[in-house]
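User: Hello, can you help with two protein structures?

Assistant: Certainly.
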Amino acid sequence: MGAKMVFFPEASDYIAENRDQGIMLAQQVKQDKFLEKVQQAAKEKNTWVSLGIHEKIESSDLPYNSNIVINSEGKIVSTYRKLHLFNINIPNGPQLLESSSVLKGESIVPPVETPIGRLGSAICFDVRYPEFSNALRDMGAEGISYPSVFTEKTGAAHWDVLLRARAIEAQTYVYAAAQIGSHNSKRSSYGNSMIVDPWGNVIARCSSSSEPSVAIGEIDLNYLETIRQQLPVYNNKRFDIFQKF
């Protein structure tokens, strides 16, 4: 289909039913056969990839929830580990504690040069923190990826508006590949993967059915630069008050 870069969802390797299963399934990058096959495919198809996986490390049983960027030679050029974990604990209500099954990341990863511009990496729940997208813009991002596993309830309420808001305020493209459908007895995801342009237009969207689908969008960095020039939000920002990265 001519894509220069392909975006996969958060947790593309597996969605575990419980903590112990997740620990058992997690692999170190150098031993991960799933990741190896994606790297091989990227090289064979001469295509860049953004991929959400669980990344095990030697010093912990728990893995990181990571967004890995692979270049067209099949090499990993960027690894971001999710900063904001989805922890919900409502008295007499639902509980979902991501921190019980994955490690918390500790740093923002600078954007990396890709065929579709300088790409910053985030993951799912990170989309609720505008300071993160603004920090990536400060670092030179022209696009931000948000691989996700959004719940159906929060997705129906907030998915579109959050992604469009992040694109508008940071004046970047947003790439949001999302899991869809039922994964096991406990998990079902909203889907609606999309690409948003820096004006906030949804320029590509996957089907809202429970079947996997693909959406293709044209990325125009000249258009992005025009928007930034005509609406100079960044130039007028009070960096004397708000910290610049």
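That covers the first. Now for the second protein you mentioned:
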Amino acid sequence: MIARIRAAALACFSALALQATVGAPAAHAAYPEQAIKLVVPFTPGGATDAVARLLANRLSGKLGQAVIVENRPGASTVIGANAVAQAQPDGYTLMLSGSTTYTVLPALKRDLPYDPRRSFEHIAIVALAPVVLLVQNSLPAETAQQAADLARRQTASGGLMYGTFGPGSAPHLVGEMFAEAAGAKMTPVPYKGSAQFITALIGGEIALGVDTVSSAAPQVKAGKVRALAVTGEHRVPQLPDVPTFIESGLPGVSMVGWYGLVAPARTPQPVLATLNRAVAEIMADPQVQRAVTDLALEPVYLDGAAFTARMQQELQTFGEVGRRAEIKLD
């Protein structure tokens, strides 16, 4: 009798346990369980796309799932950034973009559909992109200080003309930083990109301007233009003889572009921890570092806290430069 009671009780307990298991919500599965989409808000082929594809390939190996790059260009990166800001915060949609998305546009443009501080979880900065001050070969200035002196002397006659990629672009902001550091007024001249800008510089349409190291280095080495200074804390390997603005006595010219990886806001912390760990390991790999250096970028790993701090500082700096120079992107 006792044995039958025990058997019945055991059967009842097993049935209840099975029902509880079936009816209970599933525990959080190990991340990732499916392919991850990495959005790049630029067209294929540029530096941002190259960094994203390198990172995607290595993340796939680390996480055991495909990481697929999706290019979503448009509206100066706003289309892609907003799509990621509105995506499901589950770790399966990420974005790699340049600092334009996170600091330049938000500092200068009103009514963006996303907030770089609140719309994203900041995972890591993986590369830095210094820019270089270029001058036409005939400009009577051998150093950045001499160029600043020349700009100051020519302020009364309208100022030197310098090339930009349009209002609010990195060359525009750095040009205004240079003008402020020189105590001069200069005139921005917009071009559609590096090719037009370099052609104008060689032809003497403009006196100076800034461009990325990757675009400028071949032209400098070919003797078509001269490089006077680079932004950042140290010289770049592609132009080792070119001093920094800090060395040149113009530390206020300080803009360095960068590439940051984010996820939508409210992505779970365990997912972010997995991604942070993977990215830190990837960026410590000498092969990855060489590949990024070959793109004329500086490989780094700056975690989410450093990402946020850098972004906050640049939002303030670029906002102030934009207000003083009356740069508005509406």
